[in-house]
């Protein structure tokens, strides 16, 4: 049995070891794209892949492909994978379970004596998290052509350093065009991930089978008012950028609540104030807003509301507002055959399943442009994610890896 070949102790200690490769000490894991911690994590992971006899290829932005060559290498490979980067103050499992769990699935398949006909490729995507350049799923977004290369060349971090600077520093110097893959590059893509929500744990379900991934959008506001002395400028004469931003943040919340869809969620997760001095009126604000729904029409209604309200607020307060759309993505629908296959494999292993929607985005959202996809979700403690106490039990992970391994086997026969 493949499941018996899963070495959970090895996988658990690898998850622990990787958690220690962080810009901050455990339990707060932080690995921002191409930071020293990210580079160390990449080097560490490549060693693991080489020890498993996988051959490695990296594209121009550091997407890493670790391949187990099949008996018929001309067939399009089956792919799995996820990400190792982590937002500031994150946990040990987001993305990591899909990458190291994918590696363990391959090792277990090998140990069971299985030889695939199609190659199996384990992908570690670059920058699934929107940390350095503010846009999520950079690797898969570019791979699938959703972000054109010309636009990627313009990305800058907060210090004005671009993608070319950072990828060069990380040793990725090939032509950027090599990132782009054709539709059909993979025969299928299956991503293992923690649920990042509480449903599986609450209901005591082993495996979530993802049918659809919600459509995310993100916006950046730059608000410019007028600064001045906090003692000297009287209230009627003020153009306080923070107060306009505060009103906009409340309008963002209201837009989500009144969109007409219970699935609309909106978050103002970035709010930077200048000059940031107690005795100086805030003259500038940068805000970033994340807006999602599974239903595009509801998301668009909320977006319209946010735009109208923010314009009104800024006019009323005499604030200049510039608005940039960071991304506006469509939902992904998972492949019905893959969904059924994951369910069937879970059932054969004796695991309970539930079909679900992914409210978080994942590289699968963009891989859906290249091949049929689905995702395997496993329960995590109270649904916590993007925080240091994120946790999935070894038993939950083992089940996810077993389903992934069986699924990869079926797809590569
Ligand atoms: C992924 O990290 C997301 O924000 O959904
Ligand atoms: Mn995440
Ligand atoms: Mn993730
Ligand atoms: Mn993510």
From TrEMBL:
Keyword Hydrolase included in the entry's annotation: yes
Gene3D superfamilies found in the cross-reference section: 3.30.70.360, Zn peptidases (3.40.630.10)
Keywords (A to Z) from UniProt: Hydrolase, Manganese, Metal-binding, Zinc
Pfam families in the record: Peptidase_M20
NCBIfam families attached to this UniProt entry: hydantase
Cofactor: record remark: Binds 2 Zn(2+) ions per subunit.
Obligatory cofactor(s): Zn(2+); Mn(2+)
Chain residues that bind Zn(2+) 1: 83, 94, 193
Organism: Luteolibacter pohnpeiensis
Family stated for the protein in its record: Belongs to the peptidase M20 family.
Source lineage: Bacteria, Pseudomonadati, Verrucomicrobiota, Verrucomicrobiia, Verrucomicrobiales
GO MF annotation: an example: metal ion binding
Protein name (database record): M20 family metallo-hydrolase
InterPro entries per record: Amidase_Cbmase, Bact_exopeptidase_dim_dom, Peptidase_M20
Binding site residues for Zn(2+) 2: 94, 129, 386
Quaternary state and interactors: Homodimer.
């Amino acid at each position: 049995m493949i499941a018996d070949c899963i070495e959970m102790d090895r996988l658990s200690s690898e998850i622990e070891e990787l958690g220690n490769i962080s810009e901050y000490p455990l339990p707060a894991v932080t690995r921002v794209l191409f930071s020293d911690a990210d580079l160390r994590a990449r080097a560490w992971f490549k060693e693991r892949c080489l020890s498993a006899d996988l051959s490695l290829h990296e594209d121009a932005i550091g997407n890493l492909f670790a391949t187990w060559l099949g008996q018929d290498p001309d067939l399009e490979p089956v792919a799995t994978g996820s990400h190792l980067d982590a937002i500031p103050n994150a946990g040990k499992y987001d993305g990591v379970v899909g990458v190291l769990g994918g590696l363990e699935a391959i090792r277990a398949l090998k140990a069971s004596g299985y030889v695939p006909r199609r190659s199996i490729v384990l992908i570690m995507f670059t920058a699934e998290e929107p940390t350095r350049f503010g846009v999520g799923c950079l690797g898969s977004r570019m791979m699938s052509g959703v972000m054109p290369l010309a636009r990627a060349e313009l990305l800058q971090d907060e210090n004005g350093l671009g993608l070319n600077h950072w990828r060069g520093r990380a040793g990725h110097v090939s032509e950027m065009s090599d990132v782009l893959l054709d539709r059909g590059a993979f025969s299928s893509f299956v991503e293992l991930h923690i649920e990042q929500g509480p449903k599986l744990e609450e209901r005591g379900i082993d495996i979530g089978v993802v049918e659809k991934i919600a459509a995310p959008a993100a916006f950046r506001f730059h608000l410019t008012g007028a600064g001045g002395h906090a003692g000297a400028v009287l209230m009627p004469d003020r153009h306080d950028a923070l107060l306009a931003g505060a009103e906009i943040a409340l309008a963002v919340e209201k837009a989500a609540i009144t969109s007409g869809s219970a699935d609309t969620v909106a978050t103002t997760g970035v709010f930077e104030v200048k000059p940031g001095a107690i005795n100086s009126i805030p003259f500038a604000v940068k805000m970033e807003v994340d807006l999602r729904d599974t239903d595009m029409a509801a998301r668009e209604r909320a977006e319209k509301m946010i735009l109208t309200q923010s314009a009104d607020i800024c006019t009323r307060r005499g604030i200049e507002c510039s608005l940039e759309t960071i991304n506006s993505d469509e939902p992904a629908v998972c492949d019905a055959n893959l969904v059924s296959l994951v369910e069937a494999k879970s059932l054969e292993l004796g695991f309970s399943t539930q079909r679900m929607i992914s409210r978080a985005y994942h590289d699968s959202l963009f891989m859906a442009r290249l091949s049929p996809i689905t995702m395997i979700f496993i329960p995590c403690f109270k649904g916590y994610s993007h925080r240091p106490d994120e946790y999935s039990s070894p038993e939950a992970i083992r089940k996810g890896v077993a389903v992934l391994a069986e699924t990869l086997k079926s797809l590569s026969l």
